[in-house]
């Protein structure tokens, strides 16, 4: 994977843990799943994202000079494409529910649904349209 992209899958626990887990885990219980993904942090931007399959549409196809982005895939599967704008190095990944993706500044990125998917995006910076530079990296 690129130096400007980190992907990790959160471990799944099938019952409440003996000791409280406050981040980085998925807890599956009879009442449903709880995923304390991030605990703390200076979040200034949080967004819900839905990805619809069968449209062929890509979400993203841009990069940021200053903004570091954190994504958590809630459900479904996505195809992710990443390109370091400084080196031109590219990588692709299939992303699934429970994956956390961290994209550093100056890394172009795009996502397309492989099946109905949902994600949360967080950033320590507020969204600034002036810090979003178009770059098509996801294409068919």
Automatic annotation (TrEMBL):
CDD domains per the UniProt record, alphabetical: cupin_RmlC-like
Q: Where is the Cupin type-2 domain?
A: 50-117
Concerning Pfam families, the annotation shows: Cupin_2 (PF07883)
Q: What is this protein called?
A: Cupin domain-containing protein
Highest lineage ranks of the organism?
A: Bacteria, Candidatus Eiseniibacteriota
